[in-house]
Each structure stands twice: as C-alpha cells, then as structure tokens.
Design goal:
Four copies of one chain form a homotetramer. The first copy, chain A, is built from four helices and 14 strands. Chain A is α+β, with helices and mostly antiparallel strands and 259 residues long. In chain A, strands 3-6-1-14 form a four-stranded antiparallel beta sheet, with no helix packed on it. In chain A, β4 and β5 form a beta hairpin. In chain A, α3 packs across α4 (166-179).
Chain lengths: 259, 259, 259, 259
C-alpha cells in the first residue's frame, strides 16, 4: 500500500542551539520511498548520521533563531506480517550478540518491575503467544490519555496508572517482554490510522530470528506502518532533541493512504 | 605495570537458569593479558559473545544446581593518560555516529536532572576542564557508603543523597557530562587500589576524538585500571545477570600489583 | 539433527609467530552447541574476538615451537530451509546498509568477470530461481579436483578451468551472484557428508531479507551444515592464518551424525 | 584551513539503472562542513546509507536517461598530524576486533605479494618508521602515469610496473603494510593540491590505537585532506558504481583553499 507523509515543524530559539532530528522514513525491503523531500531554512548545514542499529537516518544541525522544516514522502509498504502465535522465543543464551542489549533495562523500561506480574498473569505462555497476550492485556486495561504522562514517565509508572500515550503503551510491552527474556525495543513510526495524527511509537520483539512489530494501542497495523528509527526506548528515537531551549510555533504530522 | 587478578564466584540455584557473565579483562593496546585462565564446572557450555561496543567479551551459560567459576589473569597495563584539562569537547553535531547514543538518557543516568546544576556550579567551563571539576566536586561532596544505594538507585537519587558506591559516583558523572553535551559511558573494571576489593566501575568521557577514563571516587588511576567492558550505565555491564534465582555462596575479587 | 565435530591441528614453528584461528562452531538459533571443548598447549594465551559480521569467534595467540589443538563439539542443527525458487531479490537501492559490502569485488570474487556470461546463460531469471540455476550449472559443469587450485586462484580462474575445490565452487557462485546485483558471501562450515572430510566452504546469498546457504558442490545440505564464520570470500575465513612460517604435523577434521 | 569543493557529474543512460554514489565529505572532528549542497535531477529519490565503517555516507538512486549532480561544500580541516616515525605498531594479537579485517587480502591488495620484498628492502624497521620508508620508496621509484592502470590492476601489478595513479600508489602501500602485520585501508579524499584535479585516494594505517593518513604520491598532506569514505581498497570507495551502462558527459572536480 502507498502511504503519504507530510511533517511540518516550525520553532524559534533565542540563542543558537544544536538539534538532532529524526523524522524521515527508513528505507528497507518492507518500505520503499517512491519520493521524499526534506526542505528547511537555507542556512542550516545538516550532518546526516545513521540511526541506531543502522536503521534510518538522523540529522544534526545548528539552528539560529528560526527552524522551519517540511518533510514530504510517499512510501510503499509491503511488510509480510507473521502471526505472533506462530513465533518461538530464542533461548537467551543463543541470541545474536547484537540483540543482547535489548534485554537490558533502559531509561524508561525496567524489566525487573514485571518479574512478578508477568508469570502470574500470563502463566506458562511463551514466545509470540505470550507477546500477543501481553499486548492484548495492555490494550484492554489501559486508557489512552495524553495528560497522563510526560518525559519522565517510565513503564513502571504507566503500568501503575494504566494510562498513557503510544510510547507508554510500547514501554510497558517492552518492559514485560524483557522480563520474560524476550528482547524488545521501540520503533518510532508513522501510521495512517493514528488518531489524532502525530508521531507514533510501537514495540518490536525479537522472535524466530527476526524483529516483529507489535502495537499495543491497536492503532496501527504492522502492514501499514512506516518506520523512522529504532532504539532501546523513547530516549533513543525522539523526533527532535535540542541542546538549548526552542519554542514551538507549529508542529503537524499528516499521514494518509493514497487511493 | 603488571596486575594480577583473581575472581572467584560460587552460586547455587534450585532450578536451572541462564546466566550472562562479564568478568574477564578486555584486550587492547593499553592492557595486554600475559596469562588468563577461566575455569568453571565441567558441565557448562559457554557461548562467548562480544561485549557492548565490541569491547571485551561476555559468556552465556546454562546453570544446573551449582555454578563455580575462577578467573585468574596477569595483565600488563600501559595506558597513556592525558591531562583532562587539555582535552577539548566536540561540537555535538560533529560526533562520530556511533558515539551519539552516549548522549542519551539511560537506565540510571538522566542528563535532564543536571541541566540546572551544571551551569550554575561550573559556570563557563567546558571540555576536559569541566569534566575534571565535575569529578572533583563529586569526590569532595560525596560519602562512600555501601548501604546508600541498590539496584534501583539512579544518578538523580545519588545526587540528592550525595552518597553511594563506585557505580553511583560514575552514574552522577555520566549524567552531568551528558547534560553538558559530552558523551559519557560506564566501564566495569578491576583496580588494584580499590578498597574493599571488589568489581569496580568508572566513567568514560568522549573528548578530542577518544574515550578517556575518569574515576570520581579517586580509588583507581587510569594508568592502573584493567577494563572488563563498557556500556551506557551499570545496566549494561553487570558482572553477572541471571534469568532465574541464584544464591551466592562465595564471591571474591583480588587485584594486586606484581612487584 | 545432532552433529559431532572433532578437529585436530598440530604444527611446529622455528620462530615464535602469531596465529589467528577460526575453527569453532558459531552459535545461533539454527545451531546450538550441546557441548564444546577447545584444548591447546598450556602456554598459549588466546585473545578471543568476534568473527566478521559478529558471527562466531576467532582466537589470536602467540605460538612458540609447537602448536597443538583439539576442538570437539556436539551441535544440534535445526535450520529451516527455504526453497530458493520462492525467494525474491532486493532492489539494490533498498538493501540494508550493512549488506552493501557483499556486492563489491573481493580478493577472490570479481563480479565483473561474469557480467557477460550470467545474462547470456541464465536469461531473464532473477532472485532465488537465478541462484538455484547458477548453483546447478556449477555443479554440473565443474570437476572437483584438489590439484586444480591454490591460494592465488580466483573465481575468474576457476570459472575458466571449470575445476577446483569447495571454496572455488563457492567463489564462482559468489562472483556470479554479485554480478547480478545479489549480495553474496562465503561461509566456512563443517558438513557431515563432506568427502573427504575437511573444513568446508559454501556460499550465502541475501534474498528476501535474510542470508541463505547454498552449496554448489552439492556435498552439504543447508539443514545439516554447522557454520564457523562468514566473510567476503576465503580470505576472511581461513581456519588458520599465521604471521610466520609453520610446518604442519597433523590436521584432521571428523564430522558425523550422532544417531 | 578552509577548503572549497565543487564536483560536477553528468551522465546519460539508455536504460534505467541503479547507482551508488559516494562523493560527499565525511563529517568528523578533523573536518567540519561549514556548508554543503547536493543538487541533482528532481526525479531521483536518494536512499542515504552510511559508508563503510560508518564513516561518511553513500547514496543509492535509480536513474532514468540522465543523471546530473552538483556537489558544493566548504570544509574546515583541522587534523592533528603525528610524525609517523613516532608511532608504534600493535602486536597483531592485540588489535581491536573491528580492525582485523584490514590485515586480510582484498580485491586489489594481496599482502602475500610483498612477503619477500618488504623485509629485504626495509630490514628491521617497524611501525610508523617502516610505513614512512615504504611510502618514500613508492614515491621515489614510481612514475605517475594515468595510462598504466585500469579497473583490473592490482597492487601486485602496479608494483611490477612501478607506475600508476593515486589509487595504485595507495594499493601498493596497503599491500606492503598488511604484509608486515600493519592494518591498512584506502580513503577516498579530496585534496586541494592534487594535480590534475580529480577524486584522490590515499592509504590509512592503524598505529598506536588510531588510523593515520599516508599519501605515497606526496600530492596531498594529511593536514589538508578532506575524507569522503574508507574501505578495504578502491573496490569499496568508488565515487560511482552503476548497475547498468552509463555514458559520461561531464565529470569535474575542483578543490581549492579559501584564502
């Protein structure tokens, strides 16, 4: 399916500041950009670096006074989606070495917080079947609430509050998965069915030798998701990190299917 | 200088469990192993994987009932040590792409917690001079206290309590450095002057194109440190992570200079 | 299936020399070591480093006078094998960035040598169907001949001679695949049906988002292969590279199914 | 010093073809882009991927009929340059694991071809002193000759002919260095003193824990070189690799000091 993305950011800053931007669709066999335009103030030089795990790209720039940026792309998504229930977990001792880091506690996702709950709630389930149940449990028990969390909110906090936004849902699933010895990470994505339209975040779990997307909010199906980047949790995939204070003038994200 | 290391671990477990072990000296130009012996129960097969950032190595094993392990090594350390005050910070926009991750918040080190304190306390200092002052400040103001922290204690907690152990000292320095746009990470190490003898942790900061060791506890000088591994913070460099409950029978670390 | 491996190397050297050894089974979800023993002269300190692409491991050691080594392992292989004909090639512009290097000419495999032959012989075939035909063509047209090649023999040479050993067969397939825009690399492996028993080499091609083993000699089926390491071609996966002259006393490889 | 770069490429193609382009200055602490503009036909979508070793970047694009591209940048180069004679070689057994691959034979650089010549010509020299002598020897004995080599010419060929262009000079130095156990790779670069102006190639050697640029042609000093990318040899750093036939209309490189 063909998906159209338009992102518009406009900020001002009193002093010059450095900016790390990560808003462009990654390229891979599952999502091919048919067109892509990134336009910005003429005076900014962008240093492009790869995203974490060499997925997607990020831009470092130095901003004076104003920052204006429009990103427009058309992306064809053809992602084969496995039935989670068919996917087996790895014995942790056999994981690829590069995947091991995604078992560890990270800024927002502490697996130890779920060591009691997970076996109690999900019993002897394992692998993809366990992940599917975790995701369902979160969706059924959580309330989507944009006022319930902020930049300090961890998976542990969200689990207690049982409310939050997409990244909180993803963080809880990541924490639960890691507690069961299943490597898990976050992906920042665009999704056409995300409502209200905004940058979106989902979880990815490592099962049967590959990473699989899971969205515990249920708002985006893996077959229609456009990935931007991945990381241990939201700390790694901010769409914008500034070294200095910036004031938002406008920020919009429009993602839609092209008939 | 030649350093002798002997580590002895002995644990029991009621059920079989998986173990990730990271206790062996890394090899690099600054620290060369002249001998090294790792002995363990005969029945454990160890899957060896590289450490984070491809520094050092880790072992995955599956334990039944008892885990006994002795590691003995002689390591020649010849690490050129720069004067911190001479080292310049990078503009964040020019950092090598693989270093960017060490600016981000991690499990125990949230740079945002220090955004007010650092400029207020250290004014216009920058680069290595700033790091040296941060390290001095921590050493002068903190009390070494093995009862003050546990596996949940963050740099923010330690900063408030102004007490903790080596990893807490390192975490606070890492958080402060990141808040100033200086990439920082943890290193798990052996140090002959560490008292009481145990696994030790120090900070590393990225200045002038290279990583530099800084020990805010003052217990270990970079010229005599033997590195085991590195990571974003202590979550990445545990000497032992078990997937299941293990009971400690014995754990000893002996590090000494060989005359 | 469970596979038993026993490798025995015995060499002497007049002067001390450095050695890079790569003979141990890699660990991954498709091949799990149930036991593994590596024994060698007591006086050698081995510095263990990851193999290329972080697959498997290698050992650096310093040898004086004699080098004796016995490696014994039992490996359970459960590798799902896809039908090559079902696998699609990637558009080169969408390849994962880490895979791009395996399109490039390497020591023994020059894709340009096959730019004429491949379309002429295989017409409009593409993807896995093309690879399968290339592999069949090599097996049908080549003569296995241990006297036909040496350490200088390239894929171009082997293609002209239409004879060689396992690594020459693999090199020709790698060169052909790259010439068609399909990333290809070598894997050093153990195979129970390899006759005469020795270290074996096969090709791997990147199709449908994953690496797939292909053995143009037909001696080893992907489902029963134990991988040691991978690389651009045989230059990267020698079982032993010495920096100094060594004389072989004994070298044996025994691989068999365990009933 | 501030260096201006302008590269202009213009090609046509009868059929659509895929293109891998690597012409933009890498960013690092030693070379900071003050401005950078890459302009091309409107209809090409560029998939940006990191260069080898995560240095610099490359672009994949799909070309129909015409390809036109102008790259203009101003780069401030501040590269501290060590005296080669002061730099020690590593014991190969202590090399960082990621550096090991640069000891191995590659497409154009076979270390075995120099195993006799190097000790005979350079005796007991080692480390940076050896590299300096090798580079001097090449410069003194080779004739710069743009007709002496082509895309098939190896370091072995150039060594026999004692003539070639920049990449041949670099290849010979790389082959010699590897034969002495010193890791060596190629860097594609811009140099303001290169005459006639064109893409340039130099060698890099790994000594004392870091990569150091060496230009055996003597045309470019490390302090004024702008690096584009690195690789095992010229096969990895082509400014342009096309999958399909392209006809050159114009190709110009202008590099100069800005007063």
């Amino acid at each position: 399916m063909l998906i159209s993305i338009k992102t518009h950011l406009s900020y001002t800053t009193a002093t010059s500041c450095s900016l790390l931007l990560q808003i462009e669709a990654a390229q891979d066999i599952a999502q091919v950009c048919e067109s892509s335009h990134f336009t910005t103030n003429k005076d900014i030089y962008w240093n492009i670096i790869p995203g974490e795990e060499n997925i997607g790209l990020r831009r470092w720039g130095r901003i004076e006074q104003t920052f204006e940026c429009v990103y427009e792309a058309k992306v064809r998504v053809q992602r084969p989606v496995s039935d989670l229930a068919d996917l087996a977990a790895h014995d942790v001792t056999q994981l690829p070495s590069d995947v091991t880091k995604f078992l560890m506690p990270s800024r927002y996702c502490f697996p130890e917080a779920f060591l009691g709950f997970v076996p109690e709630q999900f019993g002897s389930l394992a692998g993809g079947a366990l992940i599917a149940q975790m995701s369902d449990w979160i969706r059924e028990n959580f309330t989507y609430d944009i006022c319930a969390s902020n930049a300090l909110t961890t998976a542990t906090d969200s689990f207690q509050a049982q409310r939050g936004v997409c990244r909180d849902y993803a963080h809880v699933l990541i924490g639960m998965a890691r507690s069961a010895g299943i490597p898990a990470r976050i992906a920042s994505v665009y999704g056409p069915a995300v409502n209200p339209q905004d940058f979106h975040a989902v979880a990815e779990v490592f099962l049967d030798g590959a990473w699989h997307i899971v969205d515990p909010t249920g708002m985006a199906h893996p077959s229609e998701i456009v990935r931007i980047g991945v990381g241990r949790d939201a700390a790694d995939v901010s769409f914008m990190t500034s070294y200095g204070w910036m004031e938002m003038k406008k920020q919009s994200v429009d993602v839609s299917f092209i008939a």
